Amino acid sequence: MTVHLLKLCVGTDSIDHLVEWQAARRAARAANGEPAESVHRTRHRPRRGAEVLDGGSIYWIIKGFIRVRQRIIRLDEISDDEFGKRCGLVLDPKLVRTALQARRPHQGWRYLETKDAPMDLPDGEWAADDGGPPPEMAAALRELGLI
User: Fold this and answer.
1) Rounded distance, CA 45 to CA 144, Å?
2) What domain range is 18 assigned to?
3) Start-to-end CA span in the chain (Å)
């Protein structure tokens, strides 16, 4: 059974900023002779790792809303002198925009059951401004069943 991870995207203010930041990190890894992969370091390895690797994604919370997800390809053990043992979440470079879902801040990551995950948006809906209400308002209206 698939399970996902939910994480605050600290330091980014938009999906575009996340895309740019990850591209820069992949380029830096390639310049250091490492595989040009998107790797997110986390302190603890998920105990439900087999379920995460069974099609799981990391859902990024940006500015109080889940906005985008990335598929988790594998879980690597990372060890260095500065931080010791860590888990590296190796992510698919493709970001998939999701329906907005409000979330409160939390530390670290949380498990997200598939039934609670927001649905993916079609590729054509990547550009947000279609003349409708702002995304945050649209999410609130959707939650109330008004749209």
Assistant:
1) 36
2) 3-143
3) 31
Rounded to whole angstroms, how far apart are CA atoms 57 and 79? Answer: 23
Beta strands in 1-147 (DSSP E): 3-8, 38-42, 57-62, 65-80, 84-91, 96-102, 109-113
The whole-number pLDDT of residue 79 equals 85
Q: Which residues contact 67 (CB under 8 A, 6 or more apart)?
A: 15, 60, 61, 97, 98, 100, 135
Q: Render pLDDT for 50-63 as a digit per residue (tens, 0 to 9).
A: 999 999 999 999 98
pLDDT band at 129 (very low <50, low <70, confident <90, very high): very low
pLDDT exceeds cutoff 80 at 135: no
CA atoms within 13 A on the CB side of 14: 7
Torsions phi, psi for 2 (to 5 deg): -80, 140
| Domains held by the chain: number | 1
Do 136 and 62 contact (CB within 8 A), yes or no?
no
**Is the CA virtual torsion 55, 58, 60, 66 positive or negative?**
positive
Tokens 């690597």 — which residue? 76
